[in-house]
Amino acid sequence: MSRQIMDRRAMNRCARVVRSAALLAAAFVAGPASAQEPPRFFAVTGVPANDVLNLRDVPHGDSRKLGAIPPGARGLKNFGCLKPEPSLDRWMGMTDEEKRNARLEWCRVEYHGRQGWVAARFLKPDPGAERLKPEQGAER
Questions:
Q1: What is the pLDDT of residue 50?
Q2: Is the dihedral of CA 102, 115, 50, 62 positive or negative?
Q3: What does the alpha-carbon distance between residue 29 and residue 12 come to, in Å, rounded to a whole number?
Q4: 101-114 burial, b if ≥16 CB within 10 A, otherwise e?
Q5: What is the 3-class SS of 66-106, one letter each residue?
Q6: CA–CA distance, 73 with 6 (Å, rounded to integer)
Q7: Which segments in the chain show pLDDT lower than 50?
Q8: Max CA-CA distance within the chain?
Q9: What pTM was estimated for this model as a whole?
Q10: Contact at 8 Å (CB) between 129 and 39?
Q11: Which pLDDT belongs to residue 62?
């Protein structure tokens, strides 16, 4: 093969690599198509009628209770959610129950003027909460 043909093929290959890299970079910057803003407000779900959702001091099931949120409550203001990640040393010393609790997601919320942490599995987005009156649960 002539040197010109080899150079042209190498340039074409290089151009394909650059185009592929540009497409990947654009997809990375844009993020997944389903990425959405987190909800501004939550409603309580999955809590039995004779129970409450505990508002806690820190994101852990054994932490101090700050309050109780009734089942079906609406308008819990969202301040962000997280999934605590214990260190490997801590993980190795945990009981099975502590490991289960460590894998739970927690959300910091405000309900009737009090902030604290609740287990995310008991929350669902509450898009209509902004129309609620303060006594119904929505905090401004």
A1: 97
A2: positive
A3: 26
A4: bbeeebbbbbbeee
A5: EEEECCCCCCEEEEEEECCCCCHHHHHCCCHHHHHHHCCCE
A6: 70
A7: 14-15, 17-18, 20-34, 139-140
A8: 84
A9: 0.65
A10: no
A11: 85
Structure tokens at 75: 């308008």
Identify the pLDDT of residue 20.
47
Strands 106-111 and 53-56: unpaired
The torsion region of residue 23 among left (phi > 0), alpha (psi -120 to 50) and beta comes to alpha
DSSP annotation of 29: H
Sign of CA dihedral 57, 60, 62, 67: positive
Token pair for residue 118?
A: 């609740």
Instruction: Give me the amino acid identity at 134.
Output: P
pLDDT at res. 35: 63
Structure-block tokens of residue 99: 């490991």
Bin 22: left if φ > 0, else alpha if -120 < ψ < 50, else beta: alpha
Local structure of 3: helix, strand or coil: helix
